[in-house]
Design a protein that fits this description.
binds NADP nicotinamide-adenine-dinucleotide phosphate, three-stranded parallel beta sheet, Rossmann fold, globular, 44% helix, alpha/beta, six-stranded parallel beta sheet
Amino acid sequence: MKIIDGKKISSDMRLEIKTQVEKIKQARGKTPGLATILVGQNSASQVYIKSKIKACQDAGIKSFHHNFDEKVSKEDIISLINELNKNSEVDGILLQLPLPNNEFDKDCINAISPLKDVDGLHPFNAGLLNLSKSWNEIIKKNILVSCTPLGVIYLLNKSNIPIEGKTAIVIGRSNLVGKPLSMLLLANNSTVIMAHSKTKNLKKLCINADIVVAAIGKPKFVTKDFIKEGTTVIDVGINRTFDGLCGDVDLESVRDMDINITPVPGGVGPMTITMLLENTLKAFKNRSNI
Ligand code: NAP
């Protein structure tokens, strides 16, 4: 088993981002800025937001944080988003999801200007991703793509794991992870199977794949019976269990196999925040016509 070290890849990329931010400051006297919005007191969301703000500070990106009580109305959240859309110091807007009332999610996401949508969840950006023909096009046009899937592609690229011509299966079809990741793998010329809870013969499909992505949210769901030797396994899952944090892959069961695998923690997770910084920088460049 060869570990794909998300922590190391992520910290190298954060250094590169920091250098770019410094160069922008020197050349233009401007600093990219990210606004974060947290609604309520969900402890996991508080931890995520704290890490995002700290990562911005470390990279030299300005951060503007807004906290709402969980009883806030949808109109008040949208009114803040409208203000941030107009604020020239803000390049990216991150609304921490899920909102306590998840019926607000869609309208609030849609209120974010597509130019500042650093989570890549606005229909405009999701549409651009779906319409793009290649990874080069996605990079060249600075398309804002959902952070976790984007991080997965960088993990594969930076680990020199080929995608083109490979068969990839993505288990999970959420708008946040599974769907955009399938589109990114397709843009990188792999043949993609999108699997979900109604998929039949999942093990059979997985065992024939060269890349298996687990984005399910079920602890240790994927075992060695799903995987052939030589496969790359990307574990997106973050599950809090009585025994601590674990992924969607049963790491112990695949330990003796000749595979590449992302651990949990320390695999995909650190890349998600790094991609948020990357997307903030992209949004700054798009807005400044760089
Ligand atoms: P989600 O919206 O709950 O989606 C889960 C997906 O898994 C659904 O598409 C569901 O299929 C599918 N699924 C559920 N049971 C299945 C089964 N038995 N067989 C096959 N597919 C099954 O979750 P998400 O937001 O995509 O997140 C997935 C996991 O990634 C979670 O553990 C989450 O915490 C983690 N995550 C990690 C990061 C990170 O930074 N590392 C970021 C985001 C999410 P249906 O569509 O048919 O219901």
